[in-house]
Amino acid sequence: MTNNNTKKELPKKEFWSIFWRSWTVYGSFNSERMEALGFLYAIIPSLQRIWNNNSKKYKEALHRHMQPFNMTLALTPLVMGLTVAMEEKSCEDEKFDTSSINAIKVALMGPLSGIGDTFFWGIIKVIACSLGASFAAQGSFLGPIILLLVFNVPNFLVRYYSLKIGYGRGTNLLDSLVNSGEMNLFTYIAGIVGVASIGSMVAAWIGITSPLSFTISGSGIAVQEYLDQLCPQLLSLVTTLLIYSQLKRGKLSVMQLIFIIVIVAFVLGVFGIIA
Questions:
Q1: Fewer Cβ in 10 A, N or C end of the chain?
Q2: How far is CA 161 from the centre of its chain?
Q3: What is the pLDDT of residues 82-109, one digit of tens each?
Q4: How many Å apart are CA 143 and CA 204, to the nearest integer?
Q5: CA dihedral of 185, 190, 191, 197, whole degrees rounded to 10
Q6: Residue 50 CB coordination number (10 Å)
Q7: Are strands 213-216 and 219-222 parallel, antiparallel or unpaired?
Q8: Mean pLDDT highest for which of 73-87, 159-173, 216-230?
């Protein structure tokens, strides 16, 4: 058992392997699993070390990390470090709940993406582009160089230290939670945060509305207004739950579902039922 006061670090070769692989996370981005494949590729060196003598558990770990994952790229090493620490704990403790690994990953996506997007895309990118453009406007070759340096140096430092913190602090945190018996509570709370994050994304990104309206006794009735009184973004929620239920049943592939969604949306849109 690791002492909570002991600073634990990844093997040097493994650390740098995960670090450099973390830069390729977006290279395999797709609409179904988003950054999952890139995330898995980055932590494979650790998974191979942890499950070296158990091919069955290794395969389970590979499948586990193919669940959808998406967050600001610069902060993914923080989650990678924590994930590796949890995989190690799973290997050491047979009673460890492996579902907590993905629960915590999902719970961290929203908060860390909010911080990362604000810092890197809202601040650093704007400053980098402004400085680079001002030099380029004067005909200086330093323009693109400054842009790349101002944006990528903070990116490099955040990735480096977040991987260290994610693994080192993550190991100590897990030891503390397991020893105190609070791991189940932590997993439960992480699951709630994850579900809340997904709910907020459904409301923000889908936005299905109905332009239908009726006239009864000379009074106009807008269907969407009544739906909003029942539950804001009700149509978006119902649509998401229907699609999720079909995915869980496993009778239709993702491509078949996408095709059905496109056809149904087109037909309902033509007849003015949804917008």
A1: N
A2: 19
A3: 999 889 888 888 888 888 888 888 888 8
A4: 36
A5: 150
A6: 20
A7: antiparallel
A8: 73-87
In whole angstroms, give the CA distance from residue 16 to residue 21: 8
**The two three-digit tokens of residue 196, written as one number:** 């809340």
Q: How far is CA 231 from CA 115, 211, 220, 275, in A?
A: 29, 16, 21, 18
Read off the tokens for 216.
């009864």
Q: Above pLDDT 70, what percent of the chain?
A: 89
Q: Cα Rg for the chain, rounded, in angstroms?
A: 23
- Say which amino acid occupies 230: L
E-only strand ranges, 111-212: none
Q: What's the length of the chain?
A: 275
- With CA atoms as reference, report the closest residue to 246 among 179, 217, 85, 255: 255
In the chain, domain spans: 12-200, 207-270
**DSSP code of 215?**
E
Number of neighbours of residue 215 by Cβ within 10 angstroms: 8
Name the residue type at position 130: S
Confidence check: pLDDT of 18 > 90: yes
- Which has the higher per-residue pLDDT, 39 or 184? 39
Strand partners of residue 220: 215
Angle at CA 223, nearest 5°, toward 222 and 226? Answer: 95
pLDDT in tens, 134-150: 888 888 888 899 999 99
Closest CA relative to residue 198, chosen from 107, 71, 91: 107
Tokens 């790229």 correspond to 73
Tell me the C-alpha to C-alpha distance, in Å, between residue 235 and each of 56, 207, 228: 42, 8, 9
